[in-house]
């Protein structure tokens, strides 16, 4: 089976294509398939129409060069790993403080560019600004955080001389907001000889370090890095303590079931949407990666752009991290990942980090008898029609999934398009739900079989109700 992995940033996208090793795949049946045999790697950069492409040798060389050059850039100490043109296909050269030259030598790394197919091609040279460079670094970070892609490939960096560290603290403070990922932080720390060279994957904590790794607060890094999660051990009146989200994701399994992700997606939206009050202050979109437990608790977040790192106080995320004093500890629980965007249009966007592997289904027992469904369809139409009045201000169809019990009482409703989120107050659905459950964001009634319908509110004032056919 052909497998693809994509790691996307605004200025860079890494696309890996490959296969699973069938001799190793059996133990990962409960997870998404492992890409263990790399067939093709593509690196697309903003401003260039054609991607850089190559095989495993190209990709490994790219990873080494990117990581080595990032270390060099942060420390201002030359790193030969970034410039080894004799044995590497990829190298970097610094042009000035905001321009960096990426050089790709031949051996199949440049087929994506229109060069003659011969054994001695001229090197490809691409100039990147610092933002593009760290987007490339972050794409590499995303790869290293993905334990199901080339798991045997690890990042090996050498520390530079300690004497250079103290003189460059101002530089690291400036650079860290851009270098947001796990290998970026490792690169920065190594550059100033703050930590030993890491084995990026898989993490192997020593037995005597296991407890402290789940309880130690690393809050001082929070101002420099947008990685945040909470300590696992509850204490009286405990407050959320910052911990490495990437480390957590590398030690627990990932929730990938589309139906469960769909349900969690709603819970995440319902937590953030009413708590987001500082909407008018945003100048740029704030983009985050969230870790969410199976019960919907937000256990960590990570900023994906500089604006998100600086503007996290304009979001409710710090206040929504679960408090270990009020909930059982997060230990080996599976984690779902979501992409959350606070847009300048005051719209909240929430979606699964890796998308849906297949079309989600509604969870829970269902009423399927056609005669009962038909009667409930008519009852739902009459109830909503009687409650919906006034002149619509929206210009596009509002689409919802609405579930009712055997008595026709609303048990759940879910917006299906963004305009349905934006204009839900112009429908009677939230009031109907609130009158029964006391909250517009209460958990749906899933204790009994339900009949599901698609309800469409049209700008013309027309109402349509039809039996549910599934997510589109």
What does it look like?
Residues 25-30, 108-119 and 160-243 have low confidence and may be disordered. This protein has helices spanning 22-25, 56-75, 130-145, 169-175, 182-191, 210-215, 245-249, 258-275, 306-310, 317-320, 370-387, 418-422, 429-437; strands at 3-9, 12-19, 37-45, 52-54, 90-96, 99-104, 124-129, 227-229, 286-293, 298-303, 335-342, 348-352, 398-404, 410-415, 451-457, 463-467. It has 13 helices and 16 strands. The chain is 27% helix and 21% strand. Helix 2 crosses helix 5. The chain is of the alpha+beta class and 472 residues long. The protein starts with a strand and ends in a 5-residue tail after the last strand.
Q: State the strand order across the main sheet.
A: 8-10-9-11-12
Count helical runs. Answer: 13
The Rg value, from CA coordinates, equals 25 Å
- Uncertain segments: 25-30, 108-119, 160-243
- Beta strands, count: 16
What is the molecular shape? elongated
Fraction of residues in H or I helices? 25-40%
* Topology order in helix (H) and strand (E) letters: EEHEEHEEEHHHHEHHEEHHEEHEEHHEE
Descriptors:
472 residues, 5-stranded antiparallel β-sheet, alpha+beta, single chain
């Amino acid at each position: 089976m052909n497998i693809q992995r994509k790691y996307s940033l605004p200025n860079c996208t890494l696309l890996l294509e490959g296969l699973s090793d069938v001799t190793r795949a059996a133990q990962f049946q409960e997870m998404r398939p492992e890409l263990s045999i790399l067939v093709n790697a593509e690196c697309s950069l903003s401003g260039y129409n054609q991607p850089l492409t190559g095989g495993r040798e190209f990709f490994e060389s790219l990873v080494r060069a990117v990581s080595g050059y990032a270390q060099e850039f942060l420390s201002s100490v030359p790193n030969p790993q970034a410039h080894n043109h004799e044995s590497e296909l990829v190298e970097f050269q610094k042009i000035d403080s905001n321009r960096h030259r990426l050089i790709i030598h031949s051996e199949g790394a440049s087929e994506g560019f229109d060069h003659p197919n011969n054994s001695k091609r001229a090197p490809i040279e691409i100039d990147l600004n610092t933002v593009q460079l760290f987007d490339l670094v972050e794409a590499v970070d995303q790869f290293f955080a993905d334990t199901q892609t080339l798991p045997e490939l690890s990042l090996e960096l050498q520390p530079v001389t300690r004497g250079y560290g103290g003189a460059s603290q101002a530089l690291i403070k400036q650079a860290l907001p851009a270098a947001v990922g796990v290998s970026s932080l490792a690169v920065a720390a190594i550059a100033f000889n703050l930590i030993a060279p890491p084995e990026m994957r898989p993490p192997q904590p020593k037995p005597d370090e296991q407890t402290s790794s789940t309880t130690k607060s690393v809050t001082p890094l929070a101002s420099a890095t947008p990685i945040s999660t909470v300590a696992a051990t509850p204490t009286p009146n405990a407050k959320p303590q910052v911990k490495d989200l990437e480390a957590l994701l590398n030690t627990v399994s990932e929730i990938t079931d589309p139906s469960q992700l769909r349900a969690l997606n709603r819970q995440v939206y319902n937590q953030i949407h009413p708590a987001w009050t500082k909407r008018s202050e945003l100048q740029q979109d704030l983009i985050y990666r969230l870790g969410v437990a199976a019960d919907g608790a937000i256990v960590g977040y990570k900023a994906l752009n500089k604006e998100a790192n600086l503007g996290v106080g304009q979001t409710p995320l710090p206040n929504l991290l679960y408090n270990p004093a009020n909930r059982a500890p997060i230990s080996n629980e599976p984690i779902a990942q979501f992409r959350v965007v606070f847009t300048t249009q005051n719209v909240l966007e929430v979606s699964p980090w890796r998308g849906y592997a297949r079309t989600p289904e509604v969870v829970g027992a269902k009423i399927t008898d056609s005669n009962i469904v038909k009667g409930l369809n008519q009852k739902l139409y009459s109830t909503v029609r009687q409650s919906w009045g006034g002149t619509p201000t929206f210009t596009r169809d509002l689409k919802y999934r609405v579930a009712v019990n055997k008595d026709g009482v609303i048990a759940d409703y879910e917006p299906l398009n963004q305009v349905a989120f934006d204009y839900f107050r112009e429908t009677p659905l939230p009031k109907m739900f609130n009158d029964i459950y006391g909250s517009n964001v209460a958990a749906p009634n899933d204790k009994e079989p339900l009949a599901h319908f698609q309800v469409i509110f049209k700008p013309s004032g027309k109402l349509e109700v039809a039996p549910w056919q599934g997510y589109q």
